[in-house]
Amino acid sequence: MLFAFASTTTSFLAGSGPLPRTVSTGATVRMTVTAEPEAAKSAELLYDLNEPVFPEVCEFAGVTLSRYVLEMARANPDKPELNELVSVMTAVERACKTISSLVRRSPMSGLTGLQEGGGAINVQGEEQKKLDVITNTVLKNALKFTGKMGVLASEEEDEPVGMEDDRADTYKWEKEVILEESGKFVAVFDPLDGSSNVDANIPTGTIFGIFEEPEACEVIDGNGDGVVTNDEFKDCMGATMQAGNKLVVGGYCLYSAATEFVMSFGGKTCQGFTLDEQVGEFVLTKPNMQIPARGKPIYSVNEANRWAWDPELTEYITTIQKGEGETGKQYSARYIGSMVGDVHRTLLYGGIFGYPGDSKNPNGKLRLLYEAAPMAFIVEAAGGAAVSGKGERILEIDPTDDPTGRGVHQRVPVFLGSKDDVAEMRSYYKK
Ligand code: AHG
Ligand code: MN
Ligand code: MN
Question: Do the beta carbons of residue 68 and residue 62 sit within 8 Å?
Answer without folding.
Answer: no
